[in-house]
Known about the structure:
The chain has 551 residues and is mostly helical.
Amino acid sequence: xxxxxxxxxxxxxxxxxxxxxxxxxxxxxxxxxxxxxxxxxxxxxxxxxxxxxxxxxxxxxxxxxxxxxxxxxxxxxxxxxxxxxxxxxxxxxxxxxxxxxxxxxxxxxxxxxxxxxxxxxxxxxxxxxxxxxxxxxxxxxxxxxxxxxxxxxxxxxxxxxxxxxxxxxxxxxxxxxxxxxxxxxxxxxxxxxxxxxxxxxxxxxxxxxxxxxxxxxxxxxxxxxxxxxxxxxxxxxxxxxxxxxxxxxxxxxxxxxxxxxxxxxxxxxxxxxxxxxxxxxxxxxxxxxxxxxxxxxxxxxxxxxxxxxxxxxxxxxxxxxxxxxxxxxxxxxxxxxxxxxxxxxxxxxxxxxxxxxxxxxxxxxxxxxxxxxxxxxxxxxxxxxxxxxxxxxxxxxxxxxxxxxxxxxxxxxxxxxxxxxxxxxxxxxxxxxxxxxxxxxxxxxxxxxxxxxxxxxxxxxxxxxxxxxxxxxxxxxxxxxxxxxxxxxxxxxxxxxxxxxxxxxxxxxxxxxxxxxxxxxxxxxxxxxxxxxxxxxxxxxxxxxxxxxxx
Length: 551
Ligand SMILES: Cc1cc2nc3c(=O)[nH]c(=O)nc-3n(C[C@H](O)[C@H](O)[C@H](O)COP(=O)(O)OP(=O)(O)OC[C@H]3O[C@@H](n4cnc5c(N)ncnc54)[C@H](O)[C@@H]3O)c2cc1C
Ligand code: SF4
């Protein structure tokens, strides 16, 4: 164990990762490229977006003289939502490292920094000008993962006078339409069905036609609280120097949220670092991944989670190689890694991640407007500061501001749960989730937020809303024992807000939810309560709803 950690330690502190990035292309370089392009006969401009850093894409298999790749840092991307500063820094640093790698491999690349004098700050404007300057006779791009960018590129291409072509990004297991094919003729999108189809189709954890272990789902063995005296592994962090990019953001007055130590940027910014994080995950975290998947604690911000979503969403790692590596590690270390750990991990990536992508392309853009409960309440200001007396929310929000990260159950059962109980407008919440997390891209953010977490889609993603009172939070965390509120009280000065808001949520949504077979039991409990108890709980909840800013 020690030697493994020592090797990782070397990787994260190595000189290579401590570099400061120089501006990737100077105005003089660009002039040279433009001149060379305008002299050659066949000229093709290929666009690479900031979340398309796929080193293994077939585009890069051969070095072609007739192709110029273009990457750009643009205001339309930094400003469409207020991002966490670490998210902007991480993406720009990864784009610059990617450019450097392509150039080292002989490709011609134009890179526009945010402060480059020639930067027109939108994809279309920059590409249009570049095509004019070089007389490029073809434009190619990789299919984007977000509707917003997809539409932008489609309308740009509609006015192009030269041929254009789009290509698959060669990243996902599924195409945009696989989901519709699997669920042809039904609106009942069971994730379990999707997941089993994917396991069979890609022959992952399969024994012929049957699942290895004979069981598809091992959730029952997972999701335990962290035991007392359990020593949690320290997260494996990088120390990248991104201060040059940070200074540029300040100079250009890019408005961001959260904090950063720009000389010790902790997230992976290239493929090598992403692979090192993957190695660390499979050897050190995977043995406990499933078991503590849903646990929360004040003593660790990432527990045994992989923190690979950023690398995967930028396409620095493919979901297939992540799964293959994890499965291989399980196969070779079955005495340390039990089957429930690997099954839980594969389910997240092969199941949930691809499922969300499918929902996105099937239901957007309408999905982005759905508000099943007609929630209209403004997001409390403390979502932006963490300054609330509710310890669970304070921990999760402060951590998110500091690290640009919260693990799934913190997002779902703390911030998301509270927002749903309090009736927060899903538009405001989407903006928050899309901004604050390093891994937040609309295709996977909005499906999780509006769908899984807020049930604003009325049941497209999930079959029931994810809500809980303090009992669940206390069961899975150590937050409640350090809170000003009393987890066991429903009413009274110190009563935990989750307890009364929980029943208020069910009571105010009786017409919409009471026929749902998965939650009928909760209505039985509610209906059996004394009328005076119910009144007191609802009054307490009303009081909290009127005072959300002060909780
Ligand atoms: C309200 C809300 C908002 C979310 N927003 C995002 C987002 O913007 N971007 C994002 O990548 N994930 C999002 N998720 C899903 C999930 O929380 C993150 O993928 C996960 O926390 C990332 O951390 P990790 O890499 O340590 O994950 P791990 O726990 O190590 O899981 C491994 C991988 O599985 C995938 N995964 C797990 N759960 C999901 C899921 N529900 N949907 C899609 N992929 C999943 C991720 O790629 C993740 O890296 C959101 C979840 C909720 C409830
Ligand atoms: S008592 Fe309530 S508010 Fe406090 S940490 Fe527990 S669930 Fe959160």
